[in-house]
Amino acid sequence: MRASERAYRELREEILDGVLAPGTALAEVEQANRLGVSRTPVREALARLEADGLATAASARVLQVSELSPASIIALYELREALEEQAARLAATRRDPARFTELHDRLAAAPELVDSGDEGLRTYYDTVDALDEEIDAATANPMLVAALRSARLHSARVRRLARHNPERLRAAASEHLLIVEAIIAGDASLAAHASHVHLHMSLRHALASIESRQPDGHRVA
Q: d(Cα 12, Cα 91) in Å, to the nearest integer?
């Protein structure tokens, strides 16, 4: 693997996991030393992160990890509504029901996974990722899938806000289960509506989580 690709992947995962917090400066020299590569691969990696929207200019020569503001989260969910509701509609009309049956069983067991520690959480998130992959395949629309994957890159940062909230995760599992049931039944309208409800509840939680992290004098009205 090229040094620039390795640097990009490591920095991206650290941003998505919150190891590199919003607003963290991404200085070339510091990151090169930390990652054990030269400045050129880091420069290339940072350019890709900026193109992804995960890094933004803090000054003329320094990038920083993009902020997770209420406005940016709302904008992301406006995009997700358009993409994911349409994907659910298409999946319900073009799916192979058998492909979603196993996912239904896995999601039905999700509440227990959420309460079984880090390993259970990893299994739960793997199941959610598998659902995304099956919906992508069922849409049979490569352009829609490419747009969805771009949006999910940013959604991964927002998802982290629910990581320590078992109540929200159990509710999300139930919402995903309804989406799968609608797709299996071939009910496009219900699949889109279930996706809408899930995104609405996810947005409410994300905004509440961001609000709780703001200093009292900087809270959103």
A: 29
